[in-house]
Design a protein that fits this description.
By secondary structure, the chain is mainly α. It has a domain of about 120 residues: Alpha Horseshoe (Serine Threonine Protein Phosphatase 5, Tetratricopeptide repeat), CATH 1.25.40. The chain contains 13 helices and no strands.
């Protein structure tokens, strides 16, 4: 039975990854063939950066094209996404004040059209920006705003994502591990209610990162491994790399050096192997 479950999990993982690759190809093909300046093109321009890592110059070109078309068409939803995409590129170009201006424009537009999901996204983007620029308290303020707005939607996955972010900020900036764990548990609960594996993996990773600084290496290791097992079915290589290295670090801190080396090697960029779920 265990072999059957493992096989089904492996097939699910392949299906997810393959589906992702197919979607990337589809979006790329649409952008190549569909040159008409309409909402379809805007949607594809906004979608591709969510699917794959792209060079800054290409992101800049795509974001500004999506922004220009959206404004000409008065396509508010497309404009909000484009504003946030351009803001992220602007940050990477070290123009932090302009990135914040663009994000605030997204907030204003989301409020204008009364779209709670986009408003939560805009607040979350500002929170991320404040986090990256070392403004922890403001990052937490905006993360709480993003979570509060998400709570007004029926989207449990969105709520879980926002709660994980709040948890991380309480732990990393406030050093309030009790609240951090409370928020991580909220994120786990909402992810469980909709059986969303991606959000569960994030919640478990967040919980592990809360256990780590308080010295509870055993529980940290348990939840990092749970997150890794979930991620094997998702095929997120970046998350896998991070989790493997964190697991290795937990073993190192526990003095178990032979075990510490194994996940670190598996997580190295040059190491390629098929990882079969338990």
């Amino acid at each position: 039975m265990k072999k059957v479950i493992a096989l089904l999990a492996l097939i699910a993982g392949f299906t997810h990854v393959y589906g992702q690759e197919l979607r990337i190809k589809k979006v790329e093909q649409d952008l190549k063939e569909h040159k008409q300046a309409d909402t379809l093109r805007v949607n594809r321009l906004n979608e591709l950066p969510r699917l794959i890592t792209l060079p800054v110059d290409r992101l800049d070109t795509m974001g500004n094209e999506a922004l220009s078309i959206s404004r000409k068409l008065h396509y508010n939803e497309g404009e909000i996404e484009a504003l946030l995409n351009v803001a992220r590129v602007t940050y990477r170009k070290n123009n932090i004040p302009q990135a914040h201006v663009l994000m605030q424009q997204a907030v204003v537009l989301a409020e204008k059209i009364k779209d709670k999901t986009y408003l939560s996204d805009a607040y979350a983007a500002i929170s991320s920006l404040k986090n990256l620029t070392g403004e922890g308290k403001q990052a937490l303020t905006y993360a709480l705003k993003a979570e509060a707005v998400a709570q007004t939607t029926p989207n449990k996955k969105l709520i879980s994502r926002r709660q994980n972010s709040v948890s991380g900020l309480y732990a990393n900036w406030m050093g309030d591990y009790t609240r951090a764990m409370e928020w991580a548990l909220k994120g786990e609960k909402n992810a469980e209610e909709v059986n969303d594996l991606e959000m569960l993996a994030q919640a478990w990773s967040t919980m592990a990162s809360v256990y780590t600084p308080i010295g509870d290496k055993a529980n940290a290791l348990i939840y990092y491994k749970k997150a890794l097992a979930a991620n094997k079915k998702l095929g997120n290589r970046n998350l896998e790399f991070n989790l493997l290295n964190r697991i290795g670090e937990m073993y190192r801190l526990s003095g178990n050096y032979p075990e510490a080396i194994k996940p670190t090697r598996r997580g190295s960029p040059g190491h390629k192997q098929l990882i079969i779920p338990n």
